[in-house]
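note to self: dont lose this again. the chain is below, predicted strucutre after it. 98 aa total, dont forget to put it in the shared folder this time
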Amino acid sequence: MLIRYVATDQHFTATSTTKLLEHDIGKKVSKWTVRRALKKENFYAIEKKRKPALSKKNIKARLSFVKKYKNWTSDDWMKVIWSDETKITHPMGAPGHG
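---
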């Protein structure tokens, strides 16, 4: 029963799974017992990465962008050259220069 809970939804926490299990079986269960049982079945917890909240400046910039481009068609967007602006530096300087 426990494995079924976590296998159907990867976003369950040990605490929420414990509460569901307690509700279904009508008995008190320790979240540590749940964690040990999950670990035994090779289910391991990962910590969800926290995203920083958007600043007021960023919210304003996003809203401005949306308003500016809200009427663009798919064809308009196909003409855009996208760049992730990643700068990659060769450890020995530019290849071929030296």
